[in-house]
Amino acid sequence: MSDPREMSGVWYGRYASTGGDQDNGFIAVLEEAGGLFSGSISEPDGQGGIRNASVAGRRSSGLIQFVKQYRGRWHHAVFYEGQIDGQGTEANGRWRLDEGTTGGFSMEREKFSVEELEAEEEEVLEVR
Predict the structure, then answer these.
(1) Phi, psi angles (nearest 5°) of residue 119
(2) Residue 85: which H helix or E strand, with range?
(3) How many domains in the chain?
(4) Is residue 2 part of a domain?
(5) Are the C-beta atoms of residues 28 and 44 closer than 8 Å to each other?
(6) Per-residue confidence of the chain (128 residues) as pLDDT tens digits?
(7) Where are the alpha helices (DSSP H) in 1-128?
(8) Is position 64 within any domain?
(9) Residue 4 lies in a domain
(10) From CA 36, how far away is CA 93, in angstroms rounded?
(11) How far apart, in whole angstroms, are the C-alpha atoms of residue 78 and residue 95?
(12) Are strands 77-84 and 63-71 parallel, antiparallel or unpaired?
């Protein structure tokens, strides 16, 4: 990952509607190649279950745009546009539905990399 703003990784986020009647957390697992990224989002459905969606988008420098397409019981798409910071650790912006509902979102990259987890595991094994 030469550009720290590359979207590959695990992201923890929140979205809320402008009216405040919709506020939810989510986990996104994304993979970027050549400025295009895809992946999946899982989030609570408000009824004790989980909603799943696919993600497809693009990144140009710090600008990100993507579509979240729900699968299963929900079939609508949500359009996102925002910015990712220069360190590639936080992103935020706006979302909208076709019928006009809008809101904001923010997400933070998981701080552990595979290499860091493997190094931590090796340290634990050495201590034993």
Answers:
(1) -65, -40
(2) none
(3) 1
(4) no
(5) no
(6) 579 999 999 999 999 988 766 678 999 999 999 999 999 999 998 888 899 999 999 999 999 999 999 987 778 999 999 999 999 999 999 999 988 889 999 999 987 666 766 676 676 666 65
(7) 114-127
(8) yes
(9) no
(10) 18
(11) 7
(12) antiparallel
Q: What is the DSSP letter of 117?
A: H
1 in any annotated domain: no
**CA dist., res. 47 & res. 32, Å (int):** 32
CB atoms within 10 A of CB 32: 20
pTM: 0.82
Could you tell me which residues are beta bridge partners of residue 14?
A: 25, 106
Check residue 41 and give its pLDDT. 96
**Separation between Cα atoms, residue 88 and residue 108, nearest integer Å:** 9
We report the CATH number of the domain holding residue 18 as 2.40.128.120
Smallest CA-to-CA distance from 30 within 13, 52, 8 is with 8
Tokens in use for 73? Answer: 């019981």
Amino acid letter, residue 121 = E
